[in-house]
Specification:
about 550 residues; alpha/beta; Immunoglobulin-like; 15-stranded mixed β-sheet; three-stranded parallel β-sheet; 7 helices; 32 strands; elongated; disordered N terminus; leucine-rich repeat; LRR_dom_sf; repeat; Cys-rich_flank_reg_C; signal
């Protein structure tokens, strides 16, 4: 968040806290509102005059000043005896060449909100906020160089409800960091260097509802210390160092939490029991991680979830049990993954789903009946997927035709193959074009795709493996007396530490009806990313 954005956040907070001199309805014209504000400034409220310091009032009861070391003394002198017609609710000071906030810096001044930034402030006097003429309710010290929470100074502000310490150099949150601030409802610690949180750091904040911790250096060991926040509703842990499995011990029990972001971390899987004690979550953001495994019933504990963002991960497939229990989910984002097909396994559990984002996957097939239970779907986006527009997409083409009045996938479902239909919109193609068995088409086996069963374990096994540094050759044996199959992807995992990481997902095409021996399958393809001494697992 920029300095201006941080200041505006505090401005809005102060206006909200103080009953709001600035109120705006959804249908109000912004230009009309500007006239109303100007009228208030000219008729009901007058911007105070501050000599020798550059100050301006762009909102009623809000004063912004820019200056140097003498700014606080000069501003305090000007504001100390203001009457109600020119009183200030929020003071925003940007000062230069100031490394410390002095004692009694605004002695006798009545404020509801204060924002101070310089880019240089490293310390705050224990008595910095002594002598204020009224209890301060919102304080912002963003964009400075604070290395520790100014606990003693904050202890003088027992009525403080909102605190912004973002964009500083904080590295540790101690047990007593907020001991004197029991009434906080909003706390922004984002964009610091926090790597350790003491086990009882937040137990003295019984009313805290919003906690911003994004862009720090937190690991799972520290996030488990976010205990005691019984009132917390919104938690942002994005862009930290959370790695490995998202499991039962990753997060503490936060019974009132509704919104949580774990985006831009290094999580690789969602395990069963991951959200135990978080039963009230309605929005979960997990984009930009390394997730390739969604364990069956991994979301059992959060049946209230309505928004789930899993974009920019490494997900190859989603089983019907992976998203089981999410009957209230309305929005699902799986864009920028490695999904190969859209099947009923994904849609069936989602009884209330309305929006599905599947852009930039490897989807070539939409299975028969995949969307039959999606009665509430208003939008599916499928841009940048290699759709194979043959007879296997007849069902999907029909579904698009029947849902043309909604914001369905019509303008994003673009054919990649066969070459004769490349870049064509599926919804614009006549049914006669969706055929199998042509020269540039690889036909699927007979019968609906949805009825096919995958063959794994003893039914299909790797017979031979060769790697010459640039290409791999894999020989598979299909051990089944009678079998008809085709394949479309080879997924390669690399063993890293004690878990597997998705390395690549390569498109392949095979059809048992076109092989001399359906029980023997050989694939050869480029693999420059493989290393001779590393361990890999190949999944066909």
């Amino acid at each position: 968040m920029s300095c201006v954005a941080a200041v505006m956040a505090v401005v809005l907070a102060v206006l909200q806290i103080t009953g709001g001199q600035l109120r705006r309805s959804q249908n109000e014209d912004p230009l009309q509102r500007h006239g109303d504000v100007q009228g208030q400034m000219d008729g009901e409220w007058k911007c105070p005059e501050v000599r020798n310091v550059s100050c301006a009032c762009d909102l009623p009861h809000t004063l912004r000043c820019t200056g140097g070391k003498s700014t606080f003394e000069t501003v305090a002198r000007a504001l100390r005896h203001l009457s109600g017609t020119s009183s200030i609710s929020l003071l925003d000071c940007t000062v230069q060449n100031v490394g410390s906030l002095p004692a009694r810096m605004l002695d006798g001044v009545s404020l509801h909100g204060l924002v101070v930034s310089s880019g240089e402030i490293k310390s705050v006097s224990d008595a910095a906020f002594d002598g204020l003429g009224s209890p301060l309710q919102a304080l912002g010290l963003p964009n400075n160089q604070l290395e520790r929470v100014p606990s003693s100074a904050l202890a003088m502000l027992s009525g403080l409800e909102r605190l912004d310490l973002s964009h500083n150099r904080l590295h540790t949150i101690h047990n007593n960091s907020f001991k004197g601030s029991p009434n906080l409802t909003f706390l922004d610690l984002s964009n610091n260097s926090i790597h350790f949180i003491s086990p009882d750091a937040f137990v003295n904040l019984p009313f805290l509802k919003v906690l911003r911790l994004q862009n720090n250096l937190l690991t799972s060991a520290s996030t488990s210390h976010l205990q005691g926040l019984r009132s917390l509703v919104d938690l942002d842990l994005s862009s930290n160092l959370l790695a490995g499995q998202l499991g039962p011990s990753t997060l503490p029990r936060l019974p009132n939490l509704q919104v949580i972001s774990l985006a831009h971390n290094q999580l690789n899987s969602v395990r069963r029991g991951s959200f135990a004690g978080l039963e009230g979550i309605v929005s979960l953001t997990l984009n930009h991680n390394q997730i390739d495994v969604l364990e069956d019933h991994g979301f059992r504990a959060v049946p209230t979830l309505s928004h789930l963002d899993l974009a920019n991960n490494r997900i190859v497939a989603v089983s019907s049990a992976s998203l089981a229990h999410l009957t209230k989910l309305k929005t699902l984002d799986l864009s920028h993954n490695f999904l190969r097909s859209l099947t009923s396994d994904l849609i069936v559990p989602l009884k209330s789903i309305q929006v599905i984002k599947l852009d930039d996957n490897d989807i070539s097939i939409v299975a028969e009946g995949a969307l039959n239970t999606g009665n509430h779907i208003t939008s599916i986006s499928l841009s940048d997927n290699p759709l194979n527009c043959d007879c296997s997409l007849l069902y999907f083409a029909g579904w698009l035709s029947n849902h043309s009045a909604t914001h369905a996938a019509g303008d994003t479902a673009v054919c990649a193959t066969p070459p004769s239909l490349e870049n064509g919109l599926l919804q614009d193609l006549p049914v006669s074009k969706l055929t199998c068995g042509g020269e540039d088409s690889v036909p699927p086996p007979e019968g609906p795709l949805a009825s096919m069963q995958p063959y794994t374990g003893t039914k299909i096994s790797l017979r031979s493996y060769q790697f010459d540094g640039s290409r791999i050759s894999l020989g598979w044996t299909v051990v089944a007396p009678v079998i008809s199959y085709y394949c479309n992807a080879l997924v390669i995992y690399e063993d890293v530490g004690n878990h597997e990481v998705l390395l690549d997902s390569k498109p392949v095409r095979c059809n048992s009806s076109q092989l001399p021996d359906a029980k023997s399958l050989t694939l050869s393809l480029s693999a420059n990313e493989l290393q001779p001494t590393h361990s890999y697992r190949s999944v066909l």
